[in-house]
Amino acid sequence: MMEKAFSCWNNKEIESALPLKYGDLGVAAVIGWGGIQVFDTRLDIVELCYQYAQAVQNNSCGQCIPCRTGMRVLSDLFAKIRDGRGEERDLDYIKSLSIAISKASMCEIGQSSPRVFLYLLENFRDAFEATVKGGGGSGPEYSFHSLLTAPCMQACPIHLDIPKYIEEIKAGRFRESLDCIKSRLPLPGIVGRVCVRPCESNCRRGLVDESLQIRHLKRFVADYALKCTPNTRLAADHAAQLASPSSLPRVAIIGAGPSGLTCASFLAKKSYEVTIFEMLPESGGMAAVGIPDYRLPRDIVREEVAEIEQLGVKILHGKALGPHFTLEDLERAGYKAVFIGMGCHCHKSLDIEGEDRGYYGYVPGVYFLRNINLGLMDEVPKGKKMVVVGGGNVAIDCVRTAFRVGFDESHIVYRRSRREMPADSVEIDDAEAEGVKYHFLTAPKRIIGENSKVTGLECVRMELGEPDASGRRRPVEVPGSEFVIEADVIVAAIGQEGDFNCMCNLPGVEVTKKGAIIVDENLMTTRNGVFAGGDCVTGPDVLIKACAHGRLVSMAIDEFLTKGKTETLGEVLDEKFLAGLKVYDPAESIALPAGPGRVAVTHEHPSERINDFREVDKGYTADEAVSEASRCLRCYRVVMYACPDDPSNA
Amino acid sequence: MITLSINGTPIQASEGMTVLEAARQEGIEIPTLCYLKALGPFGVCRLCIVEANGPGLIHAILPSCNLKVFEGLVITTDSAVIHEIRRTMIELLLASTPLSESLRWLAIKFGVEASRFTPDKKDPCILCGLCVRVCRDRIGASALSFAGSDSNRHVVAEEIRIDKEACIGCGTCANICPVQAIKLEDMESDRKIVLYGKVASRFELVKCDICGNPHTTQEFIDSVVSRLNEEQKKGVRNLCPECARHYYAEAMTGHFTADVRGNR
């Protein structure tokens, strides 16, 4: 028992910290890699330490001696003290063990976990001594829950167990690595190519030298499995599953994009009968029609879709919600739950003069990419010079695609500087290597046309002023600096925000002013049994986020159909709780010498690659993948929270 | 060449060397259980930790087996802190693994008379991985592996397992094991590989063509022969090490020692 509540987290002692909550439940105490926070003074601190040491031991990989055997001895010692069998010298043993484990362990589980014991012995030794002398007090009962995370895992929207799959690569067990990824994500080949990789910007190795190339490692195991396991064997694997017709309810999924496919895959694995309704002739959603083949080859998308179909998922093409069927039709056809996973194929207009003239050669970026991806070359405006307006990934995709469909010149117009460009920096460099001309600090003013055809774009120079709400400096026009870039085609790629006009008007499904579908924490819409996720909920967002939604919905639908339950999913609560604890601290200094940095990925030579849609990145070889994986610091972290068993006691 | 300092003495080491290699080259001893030059660093025993100072490092405690040398590195191999941590780890090993010669030697060297700890659960060996690595990287049989736990997916290493089908009975694992957790028991022409006190695989030994003593397994011979080219294969004889020495000595010198000729 402690005299007063206290809080020390990430090296900061906080006076009278606000009590933390897990969902709606008040938390009595939190103990973990960052320190300890005690809000309920009746909680027995020795019991808390014992429970935490046990949890850490359960999460230890057992490879290095200090963590494997040290944590075991440590939790035995805490149990001994808690049970009143403790001796004064046990506290010294705990101290020397905690020092040895935190200083000598191989990875962060051992290094980060016992530090809290040293802090407690330093500052609250009397509380431990009291227990040694008088045994534990008898306060209210608590239950203890532990969570395992890592900076990269927490940053990943779908929370892939990244340290685990990297460890498997390091050990040369590529198949096991892929299994680890697939237990949460059925599209590793797609995500391994185009993910914006929030994990890598939260990688602690980046604080030492350079972050790991996590995305490329994922791609490597996905490709490796594809090479080693032809589709026929996968089919055999699932033959048994296909043979037994499902007795579980039917679920309809609208949209065969990343969220729909992910959801379908997990539901099918739970033996639901799943049908996907897709408006386009091709599966994959934005992954198939929004990303050019040189970044994500169509074969990869088709392979991964085929694998999901082999689980028994039916995909019906050319079926759009609204024009072809309604939610009521689905209900009548016996579907017990519906997931709306529609993408955001809308675009934001440039809002400049000449845009509404209907000139031939003016086209929104998403349409440009979609038509090329669907092979509708007649719909793609022809010419020699292209200008793309925007600084995101779609803009870069368009401007790089230009060369590949016969344009000689390709320009990009962006109103801020290179540093503020939201596109992936690797993509920006690759585009430059291919000969794309950048016009930074330049804004479009007017589309110039002749004979109802685009002939050029009038632009104006900008300079950076005060920072705006996004923290980026606001560009301001330089008066009198207008100039014209000649162009046959102008592509607008300044974002897909704006009205969700493409969303259907669905009875019972409420939407926001902008048209985004309103959902609860479990992603259920205001209409019972209808769930939604991905872009139609978040607005245009990254692919992995859509997959995360798909996975969450698969669990929510399962709960809904088996228990009729609408309680918030445990995973959602875990995620929120961990987010409040700041798993990644960019200011942390790590006592490790810088190594040689990341293993580079081979690229096709720019002059070779710009004439066709062959894949630019060649990916890792097995040796390269293993040596890149060896750079992982394995920053697993364990945290434990205690809640009173009787909430009225809180 | 790179200049670093170990225990106050400036030392020259070539680029790419580890601190452990540089120290051993200078005759400075750092204890290890899982390191062997032929197998490279593994970094699990943690006994080779040293204190490192230098550019970007302040009192960092790092394993010397996979710490590469760099200019300006200042290493202390046996500071008070390091000594204390090592002693704690030796105590942990004494308390949780079967007693062996190498552990007893370490304990004497670091002045550990008895372990303060009494854990309930013990490990079957120290899980240093030397046997796993030598079988995979040098012998090429990959018969040994770390086994995780069936009940806990986080556990990567709980014990060592043998794949009987892949084992060629060469006995390298038994030779390399620092704690004798794997043993080789040869009786007449019967060879047993004993892991954690249980017979893990069994082989019939092949007899030497000269002296007739059983000396190795057919599987081992096949594995060696499979790596030879046709020319080399012509030189293969089925001889025990002792007879082989005499046989090839004769081939080189033209003299055959009497006892071998007698056995023929």
Q: How would you describe the overall organization of this protein?
A:
The complex is a heterodimer of chains A (650) and B (264). Chain A has 25 helices and 22 strands. Chain A has 650 residues and is an alpha/beta fold. In chain A, the strands form five sheets. Chain A has a six-stranded antiparallel beta sheet with strand order 2-1-6-5-22-7. A five-stranded parallel beta sheet of chain A has the order 10-9-8-11-21. Chain A has a five-stranded parallel beta sheet with strand order 12-20-13-14-15. In chain A, strand 17 and strand 18 form a beta hairpin. Chain B folds into two domains: 2-78, Ubiquitin-like (UB roll) (Roll), CATH 3.10.20.740; 130-263, no CATH class. Helices cover 30% and strands 23% of the residues of chain B. In chain B, strands 2-1-5-3-4 form a five-stranded mixed beta sheet, covered by helices on one side. In chain B, strands 8-9-10-11 form a four-stranded antiparallel beta sheet. Chain B has a two-stranded antiparallel sheet with strand order 6-7. At the A-B interface, helix 2 and helix 3 of A face strand 3, strand 4 and helix 2 of B.
What does the secondary structure layout of this molecule look like, with pairings?
The complex is a heterodimer of chains A (650) and B (264).
Chain A: E1 6-9, E2 12-13, E3 21-22, E4 25-26, E5 29-32, E6 35-38, H1 45-59, H2 65-82, H3 88-104, H4 108-112, H5 115-134, E7 142-149, H6 151-155, H7 162-170, H8 174-182, H9 188-194, H10 198-201, H11 205-208, H12 214-228, H13 231-243, E8 250-254, H14 258-269, E9 273-278, H15 286-289, H16 298-309, E10 314-317, H17 327-332, E11 335-340, E12 362-364, H18 365-373, E13 385-389, H19 393-404, E14 409-413, H20 425-433, E15 437-439, E16 442-450, E17 453-467, E18 473-477, E19 483-486, E20 489-492, E21 530-532, H21 535-538, H22 543-563, H23 570-579, H24 606-609, H25 622-629, E22 637-644
Chain B: E1 2-6, E2 9-13, H1 19-25, E3 49-54, E4 57-63, E5 74-76, H2 80-96, H3 101-109, H4 130-139, E6 144-147, E7 159-162, H5 172-176, E8 182-187, E9 190-195, E10 198-207, E11 214-217, H6 218-225, H7 230-233, H8 241-253, H9 258-263
Parallel strand pairs in B: 1-5
Antiparallel strand pairs in B: 1-2, 3-4, 3-5, 6-7, 8-9, 9-10, 10-11
